[in-house]
User: What shape does this take?
Amino acid sequence: MNNRWRKFDAVLNLSALMNYFGLEVQRKTDRFISYKLGKERYIVIHTESGYRYYKPDAPKTKLTSFDFILERLSRTDSQGKIGLWTKIEDFYTELEKKPELFLNDRSKDSLETVDTNFNHFETFAEKLTLRPKNVDGAGSDIFEERIYENPEGQLYFPYRNLANTLTGYGTEKDGKLSLVAESDISTSVWFSKVPDTIKHLVVLRNPMEAMAFHRRFKLEDVVYLTISDINYETSKLLVQILKRTKLKKMVLSFTGSSKIEGYIHDLMLISFINDSRFLFRVGKDHLAVRFDPEDQKPLAKLHNEVLKYNGSLTKEYLKYNKVTDQSLLNRKSIILTKEKQWVLCRIPFEVNALRYFLWSYYRNYMDKTVEIVKPVHANWTLEFEKEGAYGGTEKLKAFRMAV
Assistant: This one.
């Protein structure tokens, strides 16, 4: 064994360690204990190999006492410039003075022994008395075993990571997605049933929007995928799924309680997909964007489109005022500047400005991988309630983002 500290894994009480480092018990059952520290969750179980824990976003990865100690001490400030391995050694040296952190006959019997593949999320359906939801309408079999409901009719949606491991459930509360117990969707997505042939990959904000989108368009050979936590991991997961489908483009249709919210979600996802080539920051009254132009041709087109937008803003202002107020116009204009190899852009929090920049950027830089479609109303749930099923022949083409 190269790591001499790991020999303690067999004798340390993982639950006692959690308490020692200040974690709080959230739930305790016969087979697991749920701990919490800030936003982080830990699930402790007992296996034939001893006590183990896993994090809700990766239930397959079972960790030991050493892994937990390493994580906590890596985040703990120390006096003086003490190296990480010295901190680890000092902690293990002090262990003999802390008998309460070691297993005893009583602590060994505190949890039932479970298989190393145990995932407590797989027991949720039984505990919550969930049954598959029958979704009405033609083609709704794509939601088979992807939407569940309890006896009261409340909807539940299973989220899975790239390893297809269940990481929890989201449920609908007042039209919004709420997480159940320790559920973690930070690196997971919800997706509909995968057909034999895939013609469309539609990415939305939550499963309720996917249901409304499907009722609106009744697409065939489609996979709906929802990213409720837009971050680096879920964006990369999305790109991998796109590659697996072998489609050229994905349909992106983020929405929110307002159109501005949907545009910000779009830009956020683009920033993660493009990684270090597209960065943005939310300010008090504007979005600050920095991106790598890569090539002068698309940048020239983007620049001309921004000039066109700013010109129309001035023209509209002069319909109601005889003299321009340049200071006011500058505040509400899209501002592009060049800084070395970067392009800096300031976009005011105004629905037309955000829509125009998003449309222009994705049209010039992402048209090979992304097609953005938007509802007339703020979101697809409201769209379906107001307009019902789409009766035209153009379907998604008629709702492509345009200015």
Summary: The two ends are 64 Å apart (CA to CA).
